[in-house]
Amino acid sequence: MKFLDFFKTNISTRSMRDVAIDLGTANTVVYVKGEGIQVDEPTYVAINVKTEDVEFIGSKAKEIIGRTAKHTEIIRPLKNGVISNYEITEKMIEEFLGKLKKDKFNSARVIICVPSGVTQVERRAVVEVVKDAGAKDVYLIEEPVAAAIGVGIDLFEPKGHLIVDIGGGTTEIAFIVSGGPALSRSVKVAGDHLNDDIVEYIKDERNLLIGEKTAEELKINTISQDDPNKEYEIRGRELGVGLPKSMKIKASEIEGAIERHIDMIIDEVRITIEEIEPEVAADIYETGIYLSGGGATIRLLKERIEEELKLKVTVGDDAIHAVINGIAKVLDDFDDYKNVIISPTIEY
Hints:
Elements: H1 2-15, E1 18-23, E2 27-32, E3 36-42, E4 45-48, E5 54-57, H2 59-63, E6 72-75, E7 78-79, E8 82-83, H3 86-97, E9 109-114, H4 120-132, E10 137-142, H5 143-150, E11 161-166, E12 171-177, E13 180-187, H6 191-206, E14 208-209, H7 212-222, E15 231-238, E16 244-250, H8 251-273, H9 278-287, E17 289-292, H10 299-309, E18 313-315, H11 322-332, E19 341-342
Parallel strand pairs: 1-9, 9-10, 11-17, 17-18
Antiparallel strand pairs: 1-2, 2-3, 4-5, 4-6, 7-8, 10-19, 11-12, 12-13, 14-15, 15-16
């Protein structure tokens, strides 16, 4: 009987397609074990407001931001890392998972990340939306834990590490100690807020109205720029005149525009450090701070943390994919990481 149970278990495990999902405010990434990243798309959906049909999802939806017909609305179904529009999120996930090859998705085991500060209701919403999209078994993992694994932190080393994951909607701060998080904090200040800062700065200081897409492109082009005097051309609508206009802006101006929210992130890191045990603080003095996520390459952030907190800052390799790479490692060694995986059978 024991052999039969073992045989059944292993057959069912082999028939599963293990899938990792980084369901982010800005981007959604889907990884299939043994096949790598299969989907890496913006978390945007274009809806026909007349028929309520989905017109575009992902990159195609993001491309038409600011250039939509009257009957089209661009929706971002996640806000601050959590689902704000359940039905649209389900349709988006169904579309993304429909791109996976081979077996039908409804045989899959899925691990999906959630911000560390989500409520039980929000956790349940994530599980249900992925199940409704066709998944069989759904597990959760806290985003900063996945990011820590993804940047190469050894969870099982008896030493404290500090990970700061800067996404689109939230910044996740967590201390990883002896197999899991000792303390974690989810801060609703991240990449989207920096985009807003850029829009406001150019509006106030340059009298030019630009769109969200232009602001994000400008941020991406300037955040890791070593030459503060390098200029970038931007186009928008001149306020007061109402006509299209083009102008050039220096990288240093963008740094100044995002400085306020950069300071807020650093303040949150400082507050979190003040709450940890002295032994962990001693470890952090040695190991420093690891940065991951789309905001990890912000040169200003790295420099300011090192200057103000007097700690070494390490930007993880492939920082933007740290979370999905971390979940991929969990899929490879599912039993080893059982203490950081949140089971679907628990009460949320």
